[in-house]
Design brief:
CATH superfamily: NADP-dependent oxidoreductase domain
Distance between the termini: 44 Å
Shape: globular
CATH class: Alpha Beta
Largest sheet: 8 strands, parallel
Strand content: 15-25%
CATH topology: TIM Barrel
Number of helices: 11
Number of strands: 10
Structural class: alpha/beta
Strand order of the largest sheet: 3-4-5-6-7-8-9-10
Amino acid sequence: MQTIELNNGVAMPLLGLGVYQITDPSVCEATVLAAIEAGYRLIDTASAYGNEQAVGSAIKKSGVPREELFITTKVWVRDTGYDNTKKAFELSMKKLQLDYLDLYLVHQAVGDYYGSWRALEDLYREGKIRAIGVSNFYPERAIDLISHNAIPPAVNQIEVHPFYQREAEQLFLEDKKVRVQSWASFAEGRNNFFTNELLWDIGRRYNKSVAQVTLRWLIQRGIAVIPKSVHRERLMENYDIWDFTLTLENMEAIADLDTRQSAFFNHRDPTIIARWAGRK
């Protein structure tokens, strides 16, 4: 498995399994076990996903040494603030059945995320977390956090896929030594993603699927990926991306698919923020 070096020297796998929306505990546990058996070593979850317990059970049953795995979880909006984040972290660790975490993220730039960041810094200094980062932070929020805290984020996990490529944001973050990790790499199938003519045609040349072409495109941009699937054959397919390289022509063609708009929602929409904060 290829890795990417974070700003504190920690090596993070470029490819992992995301478990967002896998809400059935038995399905989640079986999926994580199948992924680990297939060679995956990074598992990405979050307290808001409601499946940390299942992830922890799979990790324990896998038999893979803890030091070979890279486990990520996140603190949700309603648990922000210094004390709340400390409590949320302990609860996540209990559910995951872990002694330490590889990466802990502030899930959204909403609520008292400054208090949360101070808690993450302390947990990092105590050796309970190997790296700390953020998720869904736009550049102005990221630079504000970086400018006013001692430890910069190692990772910003954001929506990146062929229809929302965020090249300028990636360049900005990398200049600040923050690695980008993509969520929704396949745009959750929106905009007829899996039948896109260009991606399909590029895949045909390499005998690869649209999903494999997209993951390869992201990795060649230096972006880590955490695709989700509950199907063993697709887990294997997503893992099988290391034996081909897209040409510069391929990369430039895919760049033309960029709509410069999220396929999901606007993180700056007040109604979205109010919903996450538990207000109408």
